[in-house]
Amino acid sequence: MPPRRDPASFMWSEAVELLDRAERLHRQFFRPAPPGPRSACWTPPIDVYETEDAVTIVVALPGVGADQLHVAVEDGVLVVAGERTLPMGCDGIIHRLEIPHGRFERRIELPAGAFRMGRRELSAGCLVLTLDKTG
């Protein structure tokens, strides 16, 4: 008969593993900026969808205005870059800072083929880009 596991120990080890996973995800999306004036300090999460006619990319950018964004295609890579600034009036003591701020950049490898920028919309905190297939 296999040894019985203590339920409290099992639950504790599961909780510690979940906290460790959450910390790794947090570090993935929010890390200190490397040296340099134009270096990105965080990477926004994305979803990518492909249909027969287009590739649609959704970039989560709550709090980022259209005037704070730069979108370009460079050598088969879509680059979304910009900056999220702290809200106005944040000159007091910061008690918690979980939402990443500062310069961001996300580079997305595109599937093989030729694309032309189609729809570009900033809605409900997400940048939605549709790249139409041209070939």
TrEMBL record:
Domain (SHSP): residue spans on this chain: 37-135
Give the protein family. Belongs to the small heat shock protein (HSP20) family.
What protein name does the entry list? Hsp20/alpha crystallin family protein
List the source organism: Azospirillum brasilense
